[in-house]
Amino acid sequence: MKLSIDAFNLARPHGTGIATYGRILARTAKALGHDVSLLFGDKTGYSKDPLLNEIALIEAGRQDRKRLPVPVLVQRGIEALSGTLKARGGFEVPMSGQVVMPVGLPPEADRLWNVQNLYSGADIGFRAARRFTSIANYGVDLAHWTYPLPVRMPKARNVYTLHDLVPLKLPYTTADTKRVYYRMCRRIAREADHILTVSECSRRDIIEMLGVEPGRVTNLYQASDAAQTLEGVGEADIARYVEGVLGIPPKGYFLFFSAIEPKKNVAHLLEAYLGSGTQTPLVIVGAPGWGSVHDMALIKSMAALDTGKRVRWLGFLPRATLTRLIAGARAVLFPSLYEGFGLPVLEAMELGTPVITSNTSCLQEVGGDAPHYVDPYDVQSILTAIRTVDADSALRADMASKGLVQAKHFSAASYQARLAKFYGTFQ
């Protein structure tokens, strides 16, 4: 089967959970024998020089993120209102091998396509007239959209992955325009050939909040490639790396890693950590996201006041560095308010690291009996968990052991089997 997978998140300079999802999806689909294309929406138009097309497409961080020129904005709005909105400028970008591919682009893809201004233009069209942008079908049987995007491909089956409905469940934690987001999800709910999601919790939300028939929503969960990133790297290598980067012995620090944004609950985490009295340092890894002004100010002020250097913020780190720090941590702290899947929990378990996480949304579904669960709204609950896990090495060993077992439920092989069964229904 010929598949098109959107690259909306893949080209971002800072990795996201959805980028990880897209990368693993493309890799798995290719392993199943499908013909896989990645669909970009870069603002660069077609050049007669193939090398320039290649360079423009994979230039890190340039994927359709800049504001469109005013004439283009006006034209897209007019087209949307008149009902003539269609994507233009689609072309294949052959890979010569002369330009080094960024980490976010899976080499397993058979080909790359670009449709100029696709995603930003589609967003404008939907906001103006609540219409989806149609893109010319370039020989595709199934278009798999890994994010709620107002785009469809005629003459193909259109499948959309809705990871969660956090903008609707916790509207104060995201920057989305809620009316637009809700209308887009409702449109997907009505017109998609099928909807995928990544947990039973998210599946229930989609059915209940969007009114989707249960038979049109499938939970395939997702997989992690954290362990694959560390293939061939031994414990001694990780120990040397951790001490070299942090100056802290392995298993001598707590770790939080994620984008810094309201739903991640960093303020409560910091309050609980400092109140616990532990001398085990807390390392925070993540780039500032939307609504992070308060949390970032708190992180920086705590780091400045903390003469013992217990709180350290490292910002965004490359994948290879992050996985080593996860594997070397005493425990991962992830008291998020709400998640569609909670990839950091799976990544920590897969690498044999204990996890303290929330008893909300899907996190117990993913973590099973391995993590120490807390009420994310209760600072005392988080504080007590930090003290308990910090002081008990036998408990940490038991949590790590259970985590390795639980992570197998989300292995690459099990994900491949679920995806093969789902795609098989379209063949």
Strand order of the largest sheet: 3-4-2-1-6-8-9-10
Molecular shape: globular
Low-confidence stretches are: 60-65
Q: What CATH architecture label of the largest domain applies? A: 3-Layer(aba) Sandwich
CATH class label of the largest domain: Alpha Beta
Please tally the helical runs, counting DSSP H or I stretches of 4 or more residues: 17
Total number of distinct structural domains: 2
Describe the overall structure:
This is Glycosyltransferase family 1 protein. It comes from Sphingomonas immobilis. It holds the Pfam family Glycos_transf_1. There is one protein chain. The protein has 17 helices and 16 strands. It has 2 domains: about 240 residues, Rossmann fold (3-Layer(aba) Sandwich); about 180 residues, Glycogen Phosphorylase B (Rossmann fold), CATH 3.40.50.2000. It has an 8-stranded mixed beta sheet, with helices on both faces. A 6-stranded parallel beta sheet has the order 13-12-11-14-15-16, sandwiched between helices. It has about 425 residues and is of the alpha/beta class. The termini are close together.
